[in-house]
Amino acid sequence: MSERLKAKMKSGQPVTGCFVNFSAPIVAEMLKDAGFDFMLLDQEHGCFSQSDMENMVRAADTVGLDIIVRVDYDPSSIQKALDMGAAGVQIPMVRTKEDVEQAVSRAKYPPNGSRGVDFYSRAYRLQNTKNAADYLEKQNGDTIVIVQIETAEAAQNFDEILSVPGVDVAFLGALDLSVSMGYPEGAKNPHMQAVLDDLYLRAEKMKVPAGMVFLNPLMFKNASGRGAKFLVTTVMRALSTGFEQILGTADCR
Q1: Which of 22, 21, 34, 31 is nearest to 62 (CA)?
Q2: Which of 43, 62, 65, 121 has minimal CB crowding within 10 Å?
Q3: Contact 170, 203 (CB under 8 A)
Q4: What is the pLDDT of residues 109-158, one digit of tens each?
Q5: What CA–CA distance (Å, rounded) separates 177 from 198?
Q6: Is 179 helix (H, G, I), strand (E, B) or coil?
């Protein structure tokens, strides 16, 4: 299904997703009903067993919702996420071109990369073709690789990082990037806004879609207006905001 996300971004339309950091398959159904394009399982900050992850992917498949996995720092997590049927992987804390080359290689089969082949994986079983060569070619073409730009070093190496073949989205991790650059107050700092503006422009120049977190409609409008095509909110923010609104409306406090 990942070809749908790629096609939508290439046509200039934004795609919207939601970080989910706990196992609750019903969330996939709720996100699909709300109109989201994908669910982003957060293995970096979340708490998932491999069985939890696979069941979340199954739930998303059932309702036609794409799955991206933000992997953790174990190199094998890229292959495991893709073998269970994820449409793509989001790689945190990349710093250099070499970091990204290694990540892309782990996400792509030879000759494009070094991903191990398993014809008993869930990803293979669910493909329309059982022809091995067709499957490998389709996976290499469809798999989405998102790299997170969230350190000062990554921002400095931005153009080199985006030049790596196979990078589909540059996700601007504004909070971590701000802290890395000495601004713990976050992206509200005027200097950080200038840095982000520069990164948006450079991504557009290199024809790589930018990604960003949004926590409310104003942030969505701001990010999409600056050129972001891969926009992600968080289930924890949605729950917190919903709880506050319910209590406020009921005048319970």
Answers
A1: 31
A2: 62
A3: yes
A4: 999 999 999 999 999 988 877 889 999 999 999 999 999 999 999 999 99
A5: 13
A6: helix
